[in-house]
Design goal:
Layout: E1 2-5, H1 23-30, E2 34-37, H2 39-43, E3 52-55, H3 59-63, E4 68-71, H4 78-95, E5 99-102, E6 113-115, E7 123-125, H5 129-136, E8 141-143, H6 147-153
Parallel strand pairs: 1-2, 1-5, 5-8
Antiparallel strand pairs: 3-4, 6-7
Helix pairs in contact: 4-5
């Protein structure tokens, strides 16, 4: 079983109330090979919500208490991101998922790139909070961009 970001299933759960439908994800769901999750909603956010970025690092740094997740207006939402990450981890472990496909560039779900923390639409190498926590627990997290190659390798 694969755990996938809800937005990749086309659900309108992103910060701006949109989804990012991905045909491969939709196929996996139709074949009952995937289950959806949204770490931000699990953390207590609503949709739509203000955009947020990790300041002074990435998800690893947030877990280590060295960085924070801040909304564009300046509100610190680190605790909500940590809560969502913990609940996503619990769900993944409970379901015994083999892999997790999360939305690239998200401050929660990014698996190789996140925004730079300046709200300038520039990306940097790094991982989101949920990805960092899942990987610390030995779970495989991949980007939707790497999904075709991953599925080909199965």
């Amino acid at each position: 079983m694969i755990l996938v970001s809800s937005c990749l299933a086309g659900l309108p759960v992103r910060y701006n109330g949109t989804g990012c439908p991905n045909g491969l994800i939709e196929k996996l769901l139709a074949e009952n090979k995937a289950i959806i999750v949204c770490p931000e909603l699990l953390g207590g956010f609503t949709t739509p919500r203000e955009p947020a970025e990790i300041i002074r690092g990435d998800g690893e740094d947030v877990l280590d208490g060295k960085a924070e997740v801040i909304e564009k207006s300046g509100r610190n939402v680190t605790d909500l991101y940590l809560k969502g990450a913990r609940l996503t981890l619990e769900k993944a472990l409970e379901l015994g998922v083999t892999s997790i496909v999360l939305k690239e560039s998200s401050p929660s779900c990014g698996s190789s790139m996140i925004y730079n923390g300046e709200f300038s639409a520039k990306k940097i190498a790094g991982v989101g909070v949920t990805t960092a926590l899942l990987r610390r627990h030995g779970l495989q997290v991949i980007s939707e961009e790497d999904l075709p190659a991953y599925l080909d390798s199965l």
